[in-house]
Specification:
It contains 20 helices and no strands. It has 455 residues and is an all-alpha fold. Helix 10 runs antiparallel to helix 14.
Length: 455
């Protein structure tokens, strides 16, 4: 069934379909960059476990710090857009990210866990500004009936970044199976500096200059200027409210899985990367397996990239809500299969979830901002604020995993890694996240025009 039944009236004030290929290409570059940086958090988690001798739940503070910024700065970001417009807000976001990347130098040199958390908060603040500006910009940059398809395409390049950089970052920071157990904190810290300071800070600065010189089209019908009266309220749109909750649980579930992959696959009965015959001590064996396990973070995000390219094509012909419902059902089933099994079945079922995560954010986002018109920027702020789910749900999963390890593995006395089965069973929480998304796809996403028509 064509999308026109629902999507044709969704995005008030969308731009004409022609003449925006260049602008879309430039904006897609932003998606790639923030995807690359976000995925490296999954590599930093086992890194800080080793360097600072902390347990799984404490290492999840990496995600808590990062995604808390979305909650704190999304609404201010929307106000920045109202004040200076979409293009200048994007440049401000990129420059903020440059400052954050430079802050990784003292964080890795000292080394200091609070400095790492501070750098991540600043980095996420810049990404928040980009998200609040770029997501609705792409959504209205063309025909409204293909908004979900267009945003899925841009998000596919976001996933391209998340697929590439764990594969680069994991061996660079954590080392290979042969070297991971003997790698020093100083060696790992130098690798962090190379990635964030020497590469990303320079690349982001060049991108900020390029975008400031590029002529992006104005989207006046989707802008709300400070002091301008709008005879509508965000809270009158149930699809936005339910959608914000959908973003909360989606990001929380996705990040909880991505953050846990290295620790999950390093378990003897899941990845089995290091044989007990070669390394007898379970803690050392686990430490040696982390470098190899972390590379599979890329497989998880690669699935998301492939799914978004496929989803972009499918959304030309299938209703957004229908495809979202199918993806939610499949993701929930895969979580359950992984938790109830072991070995390669558990390993590949958890990694395959990335394929079905792929279309969720773009679909929930475009369904949530439907029919918002000049409130689109503020609605984007609300939706991006809900990304704080990535700060809360992974921490809950980490706490549950530590509790299971403490309760059932009393011999686990070392603090830097968690080699018990806690994370294996704690990930069941993600299944409940996907069940809510199923509700949103079927019922919660209906816009006011559709709700009033069936009332």
């Amino acid at each position: 069934m064509a999308n026109v039944n629902r999507e044709s009236t969704r995005l008030k004030g969308s731009a004409p379909a022609t003449g925006y290929a260049g602008a879309l290409a430039v904006l897609t570059t932003l998606f790639f960059m923030w995807g690359s940086l976000t995925s490296l958090n999954d590599v930093l988690i086992p890194y800080v476990q080793h360097v600072f001798k902390i347990k799984l739940a404490a290492s999840m503070l990496i995600q808590t710090a990062f995604f808390s910024a979305y909650f704190i700065f999304s609404i201010p970001s929307a106000k920045i857009i109202d004040w200076i417009g979409y293009k200048k807000a994007i440049v401000v976001g990129l420059l903020t990210m440059v400052v954050a990347c430079l802050a990784f130098y003292p964080a890795a040199k000292i080394p200091s866990f609070p400095f790492f958390l501070a750098a991540l908060i600043i980095l996420a603040t810049g990404i928040t500004i980009l998200q609040v500006a770029a997501n609705p910009y792409v959504a209205v940059l063309g025909r409204p009936e293909t908004a979900s398809s267009r945003l899925n395409l841009s998000q596919a390049f976001n996933s391209f970044g998340t697929a590439i950089f764990p594969w680069i970052g994991a061996p660079l920071i954590l080392g290979s199976v042969a070297t991971a157990a003997t790698r020093t904190a100083s060696q790992e810290g130098e690798a962090v500096i190379k990635l964030y300071v020497y590469f990303f800070a320079v690349a982001l600065l060049l991108l900020a200059v390029a975008i400031s010189l590029f002529k992006l089209p104005q989207m006046k019908s989707a802008e709300h200027h400070l002091g301008e009266k709008v005879h509508d309220s965000l809270w009158n749109h149930h699809n936005l409210i339910f959608g914000a909750i959908g973003i909360f649980v989606y990001v929380g579930g996705e990040v909880a899985i991505g953050s846990s992959i290295a620790n999950y696959l390093a378990l003897d009965n899941i990845g089995g990367f290091v044989s007990p015959a070669s390394v007898a001590d379970p803690a050392m064996r686990y430490r040696a397996a982390l470098g190899a396990a972390a590379r599979f973070i890329s497989v998880y995000w690669l699935g998301a990239m492939i799914g978004r390219f496929i989803g972009s094509a499918l959304l030309q012909k299938i209703r957004t809500g229908t495809l979202l419902a199918f993806a939610a059902i499949m993701a929930a089933l895969l979580v359950i299969v992984s938790v109830l099994t072991s070995g390669h079945v558990a390993m590949w079922s958890i990694l395959a979830i990335g394929l079905f995560n792929s279309i969720m954010f773009p679909c929930i986002f475009t369904l949530g901002i439907a029919e918002l018109g000049p409130l689109t920027g503020d609605a984007s702020g609300i939706m991006n604020m809900a990304i704080v789910g990535g700060a809360i749900i992974p921490w809950i999963v980490g706490q549950a995993a530590d509790w299971i390890n403490h309760r059932y593995y009393p011999a686990m006395t070392q603090g830097e890694t968690s080699w018990g089965q806690g994370i294996h069973y704690a990930l069941i929480a993600a299944a409940f996240c996907y069940l809510y998304i199923l509700f949103y796809a079927v019922s919660g996403s209906k816009p006011n025009s559709e709700r009033h028509a069936t009332a």
